[in-house]
């Protein structure tokens, strides 16, 4: 795993909208008026991580049983330099290796405080689309509150 990528694993979608549709026309979000959103529930194969993730299902439809690689990175620049936030046509980037990319901010980090077998959760908002990632604290220890993160996905 490169120094650009903080976390990467293969996930399998277990459920779609496990608590019912969160983004509907009568719900709390304007996103429903702009694009269809699906909340996926998935578990990773290697690190035993659990994830809830809101995905724009119009541009990246997900189905139960789909297998995908998910990575979290601090920049898309292959040399590891900070991302400027501007798109440069023709420039190679980490995004070239993935199909779906979002940029967001880590707004909450929590752990269970039990010590042995410590579990931790991180919460990231991608412009209102949310991700919760839970698992062993060692897999999320490098993340910091208010950190900017790119989420990158590619179906397998």
From TrEMBL:
Protein location: Nucleus
GO molecular function annotations of the record: DNA-directed RNA polymerase activity
Record keyword Transcription present: yes
Leader sequence residues: none
SMART domains with a match to the protein in the record: RPOL8c
Major subcellular location class: nucleus
Family matches, as InterPro entries: NA-bd_OB-fold (IPR012340), RPABC3 (IPR005570)
Claim: Nucleus is one of the keywords in the record: yes
GO BP term, example: DNA-templated transcription
Any single Pfam family the record assigns to this protein: RNA_pol_Rpb8
Keywords noted in UniProt: DNA-directed RNA polymerase, Nucleus, Transcription
GO cellular component: RNA polymerase II, core complex; RNA polymerase V complex
Annotated TM spans: none
Entry's family note: Belongs to the eukaryotic RPB8 RNA polymerase subunit family.
Protein's name in the database: DNA-directed RNA polymerases II, IV and V subunit 8B isoform X1
Native source species: Theobroma cacao (Cacao)
Gene this chain is encoded by: LOC18594588
